[in-house]
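DM from R.C. (forwarded with permission)

"hey, sorry to bug you on a friday — could you get me a structure for this? deadline for the figure draft is monday and I only need the backbone to look sensible"
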Amino acid sequence: MHATERERLIIEAMGPSGFVSYRDLESRLAASPATIRRDLTRLEEEGVIHRVRGGAKLTERHGGKPENAARLAGTPFSQSITEHLAQKQAIGRAGAQLCQHGEGIMIDGGTTTLQMCPHIGGLDLSVLTNSLHIANALLPQAGTQILLPSGTLFREQNIILAPAGEESMPRFHAPKLFMGAAAVGPQGVMQQDVILVAAERRLIDRAEQVILLVDSSKFNSSSGAIVCGLDEVDIVVTDDGVQPPALAMLEKAGTKVIVARA
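My reply, with the result:
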């Protein structure tokens, strides 16, 4: 494949989010990692993209999002919290049962991960979270230590995120990361915004075990920017509406599945 064609495919892969991960590029392009890096270097020198941690994003003048646009793509938290609530509550309860007394964990912001909070009181956990909703839910738990990163507050999601490529996390390593997703498919775990992808990659890098909490509707879509492959996910906790093809997909990836019943 000619370099010009690869560059066209790279830009096309960024789609509406304006971001593409290295993993996604390797799966899309019939090229070596070294060749892909050279393609990205040329595009960056031409001012088309910025290379960031975990991938690349379009510059603003080529359709990328402004750095100061404190707004995330996707469904607002206030709307998402009401969708599939019974399933999310069951998933959150099952997720909390995976926590051990006194350990440190990370909980990524989301309406499903939020449902863990009522069930971890009394475990004396140290919790790193980027979500003000989760921090607020944990405040009444006297034995729970809460850590927050620095960054920009995105009000619609009530989440604190740093721009892609910027380090903002406390020095924290955890046995477990609990995270959600906008969609899950054969390509991997997906989100709808480049900043979410970069932030979740930073969390994954600090975790020994990645635990995905997603209701079964998330398997009905497979569009978005790839956060990680299914082979990077250790456990998926979902509800009993999950369909056999989704279970087969997870089994093929070697991912353990826990089905929570509402």
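R.C.: lifesaver. The CA atoms of residues 114 and 134 lie 6 Å apart.
me: no worries. Helices lie at 3-14, 22-28, 33-45, 77-80, 85-96, 132-138, 194-204, 244-252.
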